[in-house]
UniProtKB/TrEMBL annotation:
This is Methylmalonyl-CoA mutase. SUPFAM superfamilies: Cobalamin (vitamin B12)-binding domain. Signal peptide: none annotated. NCBIfam families: acid_CoA_mut_C. InterPro entries: Acid_CoA_mut_C, Cobalamin-bd, Cobalamin-bd_sf. Residues 4-132 form the B12-binding domain. The gene is scpA_2. It comes from the Bacteria.
Length: 144
């Protein structure tokens, strides 16, 4: 399949540090993915709106502010309200290990902490997004 993976990278909230988000965005782009970087200080509504407009396969949130539980749950809720909860939601930043099981239970597919290799993030998306495409085709009654 010649389809390229489309990923939206977002920085929700008031956190003004986006170096990590830009590093991830560049690595995904270098791996052949289409990347939309929304910039700093995005609301969950802005993030979901952009994801729907851009028809992305995945949303990556970069959160360093400590408000990860709020932002992930809001983005997940808004995706569900829009009937787009099949968009893969992942993230990274400064997220305590003890919060990861709660995030995964709410539908966050992966959490990448400091020091994660960008190749690990690329490999995760290269594995999981085609699974999403196959499920979409199956739901539409087509062949995967």
């Amino acid at each position: 399949m010649d389809r390229r993976i489309r990923v939206l990278i977002a920085k929700p909230g008031l956190d003004g540090h986006d170096r990590g988000a830009k590093v991830v965005a560049r690595a995904l782009r270098d791996a052949g993915m289409e990347v939309i970087y929304t910039g700093l200080r995005q609301t969950p509504e802005m993030i979901v709106s952009a994801a729907l407009q851009e028809d992305v396969d995945a949303i990556g949130l970069s959160i360093l502010s400590g408000a990860h539980m709020h932002y992930f749950s809001e983005v997940r809720r808004l995706l569900q309200e829009q009937g787009a909860d099949d968009i893969l939601l992942f993230g990274g930043g400064i997220i305590p290990d003890e919060d990861v099981p709660y995030l995964k239970a709410m539908g966050v597919a992966a959490v990448f902490g400091p020091g994660t290799s960008t190749q690990d993030i690329v490999a995760f998306l290269e594995q999981r997004v085609p699974e999403r495409w196959a499920a979409q085709q199956e739901a539409e009654g087509g062949e995967a």
